[in-house]
Amino acid sequence: MTSQTTHTDPVILEMRSITKEFPGVKALSEVSLRVKAGEIHAICGENGAGKSTLMKVLSGVYPYGSYDGDIVYQTEVQQFKDIRASEHAGIVIIHQELALIPELSIMENIFLGNEPTKRGVINWAEARQRSTELLARVGLREDPDTPIKEIGVGKQQLVEIAKALNKSVKILILDEPTAALNESDSQHLLDLMLGLKAKGITSIIISHKLNEIEQIADSITIIRDGKSIETLDVKADGVDEDRIIKGMVGRALESRFPDHTPKIGEVFFEVKDWSVGHPAIQDRLVCKSSNFFVRRGEIVGFAGLMGAGRTELARSVFGRSYGRFINGHVYKDGKEVVLKNVRQAIDAGLGYVTEDRKSLGLNLLDDIKATTVSANLKKISRNSVVDTAKEFEVAEQYRKALRTKTPSVEEGVAKLSGGNQQKVVLAKWMFTDPDLLILDEPTRGIDVGAKYEIYGIIQQLANQGKGVVVISSELPELLGLSDRIYTIFEGAITGVLNKEEASQESLMKLMTSARKAA
Amino acid sequence: MNALKKLFGGNTRQFGMIFALVALIVFFQITTEGRTLTPGNVINLFNGNSYILILAIGMVLVIIAGHIDLSVGSVAAFVGVTVALAIRDWGIPWYAGVLLGLLLGALIGAWQGLWTAYVGIPAFIVTLAGMLLFRGFNQFVGKSNTIPVPNDFQYLGSGYLPEVGPSTGYNNLTLLIGLAAVAFVIFSEIRRRRTAKVLGAEVAETWVVVLKLVLVCAAILYATYLFATGRPGTSFPIPGLILAVLVLIYGFVSSKTVVGRHIYAVGGNRHAAELSGVQSKKVNFLVMMNMSILAGLAGMIFVGRSTASGPFDGVGWELDAIAAVFIGGAAVTGGVGTVIGSIIGGLVMAVLNNGLQLLGVGADLTQIIKGLVLLIAVAFDVYNKSQGKRSIIGLMMNNFNRPTGGPGTPLQPDETTSTKETIAREA
């Protein structure tokens, strides 16, 4: 039976010209995907290309009717109305954020929502026996009664797979399964996937780690800007990492940048041997003895995939607002400074614009003027009484300078569009008059026009002799904006390229492997 | 309706709750055949509720910061009995007693603040424990006895402004305070308009402002008249005076100072506040500590009013204070609320209580009605928010002192952006 399917390679799943629109954005446009029975099919693409959206369409998170196109599964058109429907058909998705309940045991988690019952009462004896079998199948040697919180992420991932196997899965979808795993756990997981493949289970894997894809995938579909670009047969086409990268980034620069002649001065900010531990996991490092420096008037880019440790590095430097500080030194203007909290960092002339505007950057209950002054209330208050007239004046000044589109600075920030919200956040940090401004994904969720304006603001700040650090997932943005680009992979800085030597390919290579730059 | 909107719109949208309060007063004035707005009844109303309103001032700050305090009744009782004992047994003068009470309140607040802010235990738990702890302390220290306080201490809870100056047939000091309040209201409105004009911000039309000022001033003058023409020996009550001073101070602190901004910031989005350099632990500590100081003060005023401290003082106060704050437009999730809103919320409850009493409605029915009012007020609020409209109550009160956003601001994120961002983050 198994040998027969591999010979004839019937298509188990076909997604035909899937189009999914959100108000104002076309997330997927005519995407097609053909998955053969019994293969491991990888989906590759940059952040925001539409991979996760496609999987959500497949698994019924976005129900039938909310997208255009057909899902043909086992030769029948499917109309999944929710996740239960797709799971019932044998399509199980394992998300990047694991859906396990930490306080419950392995066994309880495996059978959560799917409990074996006898006349309405859970049959624990059967559950125990079946979970022992399932754990053996995924190669996890743990007592089924162990609480989930007591096992590591790698083992938790295996429990998720056991849970999927219990639902008699036919297609297993893994979204970034190894993103949070260390090397040996990752390898174990990849081996397990190959083992499942031998048993006839089809897998779809989404991963940023191209070396892993090269290792296990049979076919690769590349998605870029919401369109399916190509499907590669790994063996037949002789695909390697470079080939995948080319497919992923092979687009013309869409966003333009304002003209800018950098006026770069001397080094004024330096971070040495910076190591930071994960806030919750004991032995995991999110920054591994990183070194970097910034010159006056320089725009420094940080490239890295999501979860590589860019934000962690920035936030830990910014007053240790993330993780457990282990060791490292920060020098500003040649002198070592110790920044133990955000207040000290701001007072020392640092600013940090977060990537997560809504949950970390803004108080959505506030209005524009209150937000603008919120990081530097001292400057507009006397004897700790806020001068509301001055507050209005300052907010008005920045509204004009940054051309924020709003009827008045007394408008609530929740009412603004993403681009204008970002301008308010930038105003807030510009008002603290920092020497070094760190911008984490400064143009995320912002349309092209506003992007251009924000690039202009960033360049202006650099012209004033400030150092600007830009963290971005969009390589064209980094290439267009930065004077120098550092690459980060798994918490370590893997290289630094000058503007002239950097290209999407060279960056992508450094971002996806631990190879040191020359 | 448009005229009304104009009247109460602009910078101070206090329409909803004030309207409810006025409607309630008018209703009871009619149904009780004029017994509601008599000097004696109004004075009683203030005397009997001032300590709850004082608690509401502290409670609104706690709730804005995203916490809750269930211990205020017990703290008030413990401070009350300690002060009563100190005055009786150690013979300290009344002002030393007050000082001792405030100090004890601060100490208790520091204890609760420590657990809440620095150890990170939810305030609900800390103050639930505090509720038991300090009730126990009250009964332990006072041996569950009633401890009387001397006359000069009673003045704090049941005194009136003295008669001074020429005999006008009114209480002169009360008149003076009333006139000062009118002058203050007019002056601050003029000043606000002037600065707004200089800065080029929106200003309301002149007739709107004049009409508003006339209404507010008329209300103040009428209240002054009631307080000044009471039974001989009565006038504006001392607890009311303390309350007024506290409202002014806390209204100012919450809306105009750095500390006030920080409280709203921590309650609105703690992470964003921390990343802007706000020391949220310190803010939480201060807010909890302040609450207990005010609870101590409320306890002392109550003891003064009832002439003695007892083992069951302050039972259920926390619930009245919390109800006042939520009726006054605060959000359970924090970040929203005003001092003046909570006072009005408290007054709504007080007027309701008083009016039903005057009508001879029993305590059972009164409780049922009060419960329903609380539920309906907040439900209305929640419903309006979920409809994307600004909540009437929250909106009015929210912006009393602290205008945030224009009229009709939905507290919903911009649809397009949020979707784009979701995709960007998830894909």
CATH superfamily assignment of the largest domain in chain A?
A: P-loop containing nucleotide triphosphate hydrolases
Strand order in the sheet with the most strands of chain B: 1-2
Work out the number of β strands of chain B.
2
The main sheet of chain B comes to: 2 strands, antiparallel
Structure classification of chain B: mainly alpha
Query: Main interface pair?
Result: A-B, 63 and 49 residues
Would you give an account of this structure?
The complex is a heterodimer of chains A (518) and B (427). In chain A, helix 5 (124-138) packs across helix 6. With 518 residues, chain A is an alpha/beta fold. In chain A, the strands form six sheets. In chain A, strands 6-9-10-3-11-12 form a six-stranded mixed sheet, with helices on both faces. A six-stranded mixed sheet of chain A has the order 18-21-22-15-23-24, with helices on both faces. A four-stranded antiparallel sheet of chain A has the order 2-1-4-5, covered by helices on one side. Chain A starts with a helix and ends in a 7-residue tail after the last helix. The radius of gyration of chain A is 25 Å and the shape is globular. Chain B has 427 residues and is an all-alpha fold. Chain B folds into two domains: 2-159 and 249-426, ABC transporter involved in vitamin B12 uptake, BtuC (Orthogonal Bundle); 163-236, no CATH class. Helix content of chain B is 73%, strand content 1%. In chain B, helix 4 runs parallel beside helix 6 and helix 14 (317-327) packs across helix 15. Residues 8-14 and 388-427 of chain B have low confidence and may be disordered. At the A-B interface, helix 2, helix 12, helix 13, strand 20 and helix 15 of A face helix 8, helix 11, helix 12 and helix 18 of B.
Mind sketching the topology for me?
The complex is a heterodimer of chains A (518) and B (427).
Chain A: H1 2-8, E1 11-22, E2 25-36, E3 40-44, H2 51-58, E4 68-73, E5 76-78, H3 83-88, E6 91-94, H4 106-110, E7 117-118, E8 121-122, H5 124-138, H6 153-166, E9 171-175, H7 183-198, E10 202-206, H8 210-216, E11 219-224, E12 227-233, H9 234-237, H10 241-249, E13 267-277, E14 285-295, E15 299-303, H11 310-317, E16 324-332, E17 335-337, H12 342-347, E18 350-353, H13 357-361, H14 368-372, E19 381-382, E20 385-386, H15 388-402, H16 418-430, E21 436-440, H17 448-463, E22 467-472, H18 475-481, E23 484-489, E24 492-498, H19 504-511
Parallel strand pairs in A: 3-10, 3-11, 6-9, 9-10, 15-22, 15-23, 18-21, 21-22
Antiparallel strand pairs in A: 1-2, 1-4, 4-5, 7-8, 11-12, 13-14, 13-16, 16-17, 19-20, 23-24
Helix pairs in contact in A: 5-6, 10-19
Chain B: H1 2-8, H2 15-31, H3 39-64, H4 72-90, H5 94-119, H6 123-141, E1 147-148, H7 151-158, H8 172-199, H9 206-228, H10 238-256, H11 258-268, H12 270-275, H13 280-306, E2 308-309, H14 317-327, H15 339-358, H16 363-386, H17 392-398, H18 415-426
Antiparallel strand pairs in B: 1-2
Helix pairs in contact in B: 2-15, 3-9, 3-10, 3-13, 3-14, 3-15, 4-5, 4-6, 4-13, 5-6, 5-13, 7-13, 8-9, 10-11, 11-13, 14-15
